[in-house]
């Protein structure tokens, strides 16, 4: 492949393919270079090393994973409905990925344990999305809080347990998610705090 036709997206696509083929523990830059029929040096022109490349792949994967959530933010619906939909979307996206794309989900878990930068960015984006909906709810007179950001962080933390693989096999998982979300929304609606 000539240098001109190689770009970051091609490298990211190839890296995802390699991770899916070999798993995150065995995949490496050599495999990516071989798949693209380029040298290691060609990859290093775009990424500073394996960590940078794997971070970029995970960041892109998370962005695709959360695309449906971004559509929910655009909905013209009351804040309580929108928040419920968003939280269910967050937890179900990871669950579906673990089932349908286990190698990339394993890569995400591995990265979460070793490099928090990409994961922290995703968490902050999630919290900011929740905060925006809470602020919408305050404007609509549905939610009552003086600290939307702190409430958004609490809501995120309360539901984040459901993205952990240990919860995926629980037969009551869906009901537990609904119960927690309903409890959180009732708390936000409580004007007697």
From TrEMBL:
Annotated HTH tetR-type domain residues: 5-65
Keywords (A to Z) from UniProt: DNA-binding, Transcription, Transcription regulation
Binding region for DNA: 28-47
DNA-binding listed as a keyword: yes
InterPro entries, per the entry: Homeodomain-like_sf (IPR009057), HTH-type_TetR-like_transc_reg (IPR050109), HTH_TetR (IPR001647), Tet_transcr_reg_TetR-rel_C_sf (IPR036271), TetR_C_27 (IPR041478)
GO molecular function: DNA-binding transcription factor activity; transcription cis-regulatory region binding
Classification via PANTHER family: HTH-TYPE TRANSCRIPTIONAL REGULATOR RUTR, TRANSCRIPTIONAL REGULATORY PROTEIN
Stated name of the protein: Transcriptional regulator BetI
Organism: Clostridium chromiireducens
Lineage of origin: Bacteria, Bacillati, Bacillota, Clostridia, Eubacteriales
């Amino acid at each position: 492949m000539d240098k001109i036709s190689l770009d970051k997206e091609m490298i990211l696509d190839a890296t995802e393919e390699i991770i899916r083929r070999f798993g995150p523990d065995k995949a490496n830059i050599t495999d990516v270079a071989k798949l693209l029929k380029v040298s290691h040096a060609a990859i290093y022109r775009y990424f500073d090393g394996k960590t940078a490349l794997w971070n970029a792949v995970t960041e892109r994967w998370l962005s695709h994973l959360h695309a449906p959530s971004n559509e929910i933010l655009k909905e013209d619906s009351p804040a309580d409905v929108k928040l419920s939909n968003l939280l269910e979307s967050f937890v179900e996206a990871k669950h579906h990925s673990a089932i349908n794309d286990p190698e990339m989900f394993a890569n995400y878990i591995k990265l979460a344990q070793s490099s928090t930068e990409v994961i922290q960015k995703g968490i902050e984006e999630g919290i900011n999305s929740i905060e925006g909906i809470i602020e919408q709810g305050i404007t609509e007179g549905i939610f009552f809080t003086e600290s939307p950001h702190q409430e958004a962080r609490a809501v995120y933390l309360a539901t984040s347990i459901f993205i952990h693989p240990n919860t995926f096999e629980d037969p009551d998982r869906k009901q537990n998610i609904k119960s927690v979300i309903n409890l959180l929304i009732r708390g936000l609606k409580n004007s007697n705090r």
